[in-house]
Amino acid sequence: MFGEVEHELELHVPASEAWDLFGALRIGKLVEEEMPEMFQKVEITEGDGGVGTVLKLTFAPGIPGPSSYKEKFTKIDNEKRIKETEIVEGGYLDFGFTLFRVRFEVVEKGEDSSIIKSTIEYEVKEEEAANASLVSIQPLVKIVQVAKSYLQRNKAAKEAN
User: Fold this and answer.
1) Crossing angle of helices 15-22/26-34, nearest 10°?
2) Do 114 and 107 contact (CB within 8 A), yes or no?
3) Confidence of residue 65 (pLDDT cuts 50, 70, 90)
4) Running DSSP on this structure, what letter comes out for residue 92?
5) Architecture of domain 2-160 in this structure
6) Where is the Bet v I/Major latex protein domain (predicted)?
7) Domain boundaries in the chain?
8) Which residues are bridge partners to 70 per DSSP?
9) Which of 6, 14, 30, 73 has the fewest other C-beta atoms within 10 Å?
10) In angstroms, rounded to a whole number, what is the distance separating the alpha carbons of residues 126 and 71?
C-alpha cells in the first residue's frame, strides 16, 4: 500500500534564504534547539550534510509513534531546491513500512516570498496496512512553522541593522 500526504506554507523570505535553512543541516539544529517538546536529540551519525548523510532523531518522551529512527539524505538538488530523506533504521520500518520518505521543496513565489512544500511518501506491507494511520503530516507542519518564525526573526533583525 502506497500513500502520500502534503502540506504547503508560504514563507515571507526569498527562496534562497529558505533553502539555506532546509537544504543543509541547519534545519536539524533548529528543531533540536527550538522544539524540545518534540525532539530530544538530532545527531549526525554519518556524513557532512550532503547526500548519504545519516541523522539519528530521538523524540521527546511521550510523543506518539517511534521513539527514534535514523534517516538518510537521499537527494539534495540545489537547483530545484529539493531535499529528500528516507528512514533507514527503526521508526516506521518497525511498523511494517518498507518506505518512509520526507521531501522538502522550496518554491520561489516572488522576490521576497517562497513556499515550502512538505511531503511524506510511504509504502507499507499489505498485512500491516492498518499502520498507515500512524502517518501524520503534523510534525512536519510544526517544523515548517518553527522555521518560518526563525526566518522571519532573522529577516527582521537584518532589516533593523
Assistant:
1) 80
2) yes
3) confident
4) G
5) 2-Layer Sandwich (3.30)
6) 3-146
7) 2-160
8) 56, 89
9) 6
10) 23
